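From the methods appendix. Each design record in this collection lists the tokenized structure first, followed by the designed amino acid sequence. Records were kept in a plain field format so they could be parsed without special tools. The example shown here is representative of the layout used throughout.

RECORD:
FOLD TOKENS (330 positions):
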């Protein structure tokens, strides 16, 4: 309104001046017309500008509410370059700030690295168990004969530990392997997590968060697993340490139980596991299908035996315990 009054004042001044000139009424009419035109154009521009400022927040707000589930899901992949790495790649090198599909076959499991090349997160919408009847697996139930040599696995106390195990459909490259305490991997929290998912027939909403003591090492200090089995949310967080040593320090493990847990001595038993076929010791005819006096995991499963086969089981002596941990098919 102030601008409009000012423009009217200017227009009136022009009219006053024109009245004193010899040009007469024609000049007066031209000046008056131009002044009115200027006022109208100025008001129109102000109104248009005002309308634009009012509409923009509404447009932005509408776009925010229209974000789809797929867009929200892909947002978690932002900042990570997608690369492809062979599932059986034995190199222990990882590229920084990338994501890699670490699911065998058509499975989509994703491994993420940080700026230091450390594996920090693994996710899967659905964990699909290994199917040794339709998938190419080795005689000991693995997709590949070896695992990636991530720095740290050369230690005698650390395994080439899968974040998502072969039995759960995970590959063996560096984006699914971390140096993991051997006892914890074979008998502790890691083994418990894998067994829980296998027994449930799979899992959904799987996430592993992996942390490190510093930016130089590739040996994790802690793992945190979250997943859903049979409608129940499971959260399991543990350090990358020997659970037996920790329990002993806490006075929770007797020497007798520890000795039994680590024993690799073969102790044949005539008592079959509940639900397994009753076969006497030494009778391999219905298990050893190729008659080579050795038993593979596939042969044992086909005969009705459940995994793992431990050192106390009569079949153990005929099987290949590749990592010498007293269990086959874990």
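DESIGN:
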């Amino acid at each position: 309104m102030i601008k409009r009054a000012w423009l009217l004042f200017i227009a009136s001044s022009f009219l006053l001046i024109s009245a004193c000139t010899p040009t007469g009424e024609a000049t007066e009419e031209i000046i008056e017309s131009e002044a009115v035109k200027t006022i109208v154009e100025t008001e129109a521009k102000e109104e248009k500008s005002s309308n634009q400022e009012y509409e923009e927040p509404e447009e932005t707000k509408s776009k925010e509410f229209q974000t789809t589930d797929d867009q929200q899901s892909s947002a978690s992949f932002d900042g990570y370059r997608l690369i492809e790495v062979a599932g059986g790649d034995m190199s222990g090198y990882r590229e920084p700030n990338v994501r890699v599909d670490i699911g065998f076959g058509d499975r989509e499991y994703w491994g993420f690295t940080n700026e230091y090349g450390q594996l920090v997160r693994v996710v899967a919408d659905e964990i699909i168990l290994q199917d040794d009847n339709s998938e190419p697996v080795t005689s000991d139930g693995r997709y590949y004969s070896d695992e990636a040599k991530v720095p740290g696995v050369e230690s005698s106390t650390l395994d080439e530990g899968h974040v998502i195990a072969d039995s759960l459909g995970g590959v063996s490259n560096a984006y699914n392997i971390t140096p993991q305490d051997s006892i914890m991997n074979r008998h502790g929290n890691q083994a418990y997590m894998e067994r829980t998912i296998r027994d449930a027939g799979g899992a959904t909403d799987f996430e592993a968060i992996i942390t490190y003591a510093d930016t130089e090492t590739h040996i994790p200090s802690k793992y945190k697993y979250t997943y859903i089995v049979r409608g129940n949310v499971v959260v399991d967080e543990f350090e990358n340490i020997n659970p037996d040593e920790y329990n002993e320090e806490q006075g929770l493990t007797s020497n007798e139980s520890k000795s039994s847990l680590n024993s690799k001595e073969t102790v044949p038993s005539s008592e079959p596991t509940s639900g397994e076929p009753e076969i006497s010791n030494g009778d391999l005819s219905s298990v050893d299908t190729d008659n080579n006096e050795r038993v593979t995991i596939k042969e044992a499963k086909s005969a009705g035996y459940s995994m793992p086969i431990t050192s106390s089981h009569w079949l153990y002596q005929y099987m290949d315990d590749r990592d010498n941990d007293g269990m086959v098919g874990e």
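APPENDIX NOTE: The chain has three domains: 2-54, 73-247, 264-330.
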